[in-house]
Design a protein that fits this description.
The chain is mainly α and 324 residues long. Among the domains are: 35 residues; 186 residues, MetI-like fold, CATH 1.10.3720.10. Helix 3 packs across helix 16, helix 4 packs parallel to helix 8 and helix 9 packs antiparallel against helix 12. It is built from 16 helices and no strands. It is flat, with a radius of gyration of 26 Å.
């Protein structure tokens, strides 16, 4: 085989490989985007026309009434509802990153029997279903009393922390927040891979354990901090487990969506739409359209976070040494 025929063969091979990869990626993109694209004729159609079999991709009559109805149903305070949810997720993110990083660093660098036990407990909590811990956590916050001290020294006795923000804050501070055991594990794995020479040099310069952590380790942990921060924000923003049980009346978007658009409320919502907008008849598709419009509104902050941080997230996951 001469050189020219070899080049032709390799060129044809590369072309077929690129075509195959392009078709594979295009197919995956279509599979991922199809559910979102299929919402267009539903959420942007006039409510009375929803369910029309003639509508496939484009609505016959463009309307944003589904979004208006969704805002009216799940956002009683308007944009403040989303703002409150974003602030909650951001606050939990800060607490989880701060305390998870400290615990992860201690587990990675303090060599003792207790650190090994703590490491085992973190993995155990991560693998344990959250439902199995719910009863103990709920009773603890419902009848909160630190080791019986409050009941012993004060007349108030036990304190009910259910439906108070402090309950969610305490979960994050004591590392029982949303997927926080995973965050501790990620930090511990990252700090294990940082050369010990950095700590030794810091100790020679007079830095203690705390000084080394804040001055040396944290600045070098920016990749894993940003990764955990993005994951923490997304998961806390969409959490319905802790918010439903420990702060159901807080009015977060995730809680409002999960409690408003349930099957038991279908007739109530359809009747409300008829009264609000003077629509004579509605089918069940109208309920689904308003629900899907509410979900799209709910996703806006997550899409913004993704567009801002997706490149950093991918790079940090590749370069943070989590495989080690």
């Amino acid at each position: 085989m001469n050189e020219n025929s070899y080049r032709v063969k390799m060129t044809v091979k590369n072309v077929f490989i690129r075509i195959f990869l392009f078709l594979l990626i295009a197919g995956l993109c279509f599979t991922i985007l199809y559910p979102i694209l299929s919402l267009v004729p539903t959420v942007f159609s006039a409510i009375e026309d929803i369910g029309n079999p003639n509508v496939i991709w484009l609505p016959e009559k463009f309307s944003t009434l589904s979004f208006t109805a969704a805002i009216r149903l799940v956002m009683p305070n308007g944009l403040m509802t989303i703002g409150k949810t974003v602030l909650y997720a951001a606050g939990m993110m800060v607490l989880q990153v701060f305390f998870s990083a400290m615990v992860g660093y201690s587990m990675a660098r303090v060599k003792s029997v207790f650190s090994k036990i703590a490491y085992f407990l973190v993995i155990f909590v991560f693998l344990t279903p959250r439902q199995s811990l719910l009863l103990a956590q709920y009773i603890n916050f419902k009848h909160f009393d630190v080791l019986g001290i409050m009941n012993l020294f004060t007349q108030a006795g036990e304190v009910d922390l259910i439906n108070k923000p402090i309950a969610l804050v305490m979960l994050a501070v004591f590392c029982f927040g949303v997927n926080q055991s995973l965050f501790i594990f990620l930090f511990a794995q990252f700090f294990k891979n940082i050369p010990k020479e950095l700590e030794e040099a810091a100790n020679i310069d007079g830095c203690g354990f705390v000084g080394t952590y804040f001055r040396i380790m944290l600045p070098n942990a920016i990749p894993i901090i940003s990764t955990v921060a993005i994951l923490s924000f997304v998961w806390n923003y969409g959490d319905t487990y802790f918010t439903n049980y420990f702060s159901p009346n807080a009015g977060f978007m995730s809680t409002l969506l999960s409690t408003t658009f349930v099957s038991a409320n279908k007739n109530f919502i359809l009747n409300a739409l008829q009264n609000w907008y003077g629509i004579p008849t509605l089918n069940d598709f109208a309920f689904d359209a308003v629900k899907q419009a509410g979900v799209l509104i709910y996703l806006i902050p997550l899409i913004i976070v993704y567009l801002i941080g997706q490149r950093k997230l991918v790079q940090n996951m590749e370069n943070s040494g989590l495989v080690g």
